[in-house]
Amino acid sequence: MLCISLTACSLASSGNEQESEEDVPASSQKESEQNDADKEGQSSSPEETEQTPADEEKDTASEKTEKDKVLDDGTVEVGEPESLQVVVNKRRKLPEDYTPEDLTVPNVPFYFTEDHPKKQLRKEAARALEKLFDAAEQDGIDLVAASGYRSYDRQKRIYERNVEVYGKEETDTFSAQPGTSEHQTGLAMDVTSAQVAFKLEQSFGETNEGEWLADHAHEHGFIIRYREGAKEITGYMYEPWHLRYVGKDISTDVHEQAVTLEEFFGLYPSDE
Ligand SMILES: [Zn+2]
User: Active-site residue among 17, 201, 239, 263?
Assistant: First the structure.
């Protein structure tokens, strides 16, 4: 069996900040963590429909999916990529030409100093991240931002390089295909801390910073997007570092119901 990380994110290395260091298999993964995949129950999902719901109902799920377009390969191109509640995963892709119009660099500490497009988030998410970091600081928690916005083209370069090195089958287990990375929305930010040497690894979830985030991210409109034990639903293993902005109402509901975004919007299963 392969022992690698299934990550939707770039895997940040401390120090040198090259694209070549992103989306590479992590060696630090524990296979036992995959056992948690069985824990996820089917409870408390507001909508249990498996695919895009019919559009006659005036519920949340249909409102957000009625503009989606089913592609020839059975995947979906999301119709409202600019929605703060957009659900992007391996079968719900962003349009190739989608670039958020309101990208800005949040005023938070990053673990690198140079300018880089990945410092960016969409405006509302950036302001919310600043408040989240302020609240963390007040509680004695030192968060550091690692990676936010990533363009379709940049994800494409990363993915194609990984295919050259690792082959497609292996690459698909840890690197998002272009259009399927939530980082293209400008609503996702990977955060880390000195305690894990600014890496993106699952042990971050057990640090003070990781635990604080799990408890408080929703208070500022963010969710931990890739929950522990939900790989079958989200398509990715547990990523305690990957924050997704959805707005405070939904983040609170998702947190209280302890579900994935897919389940919350009735879009499970997400994977192939
Ligand atoms: Zn991420």
Answer: 239
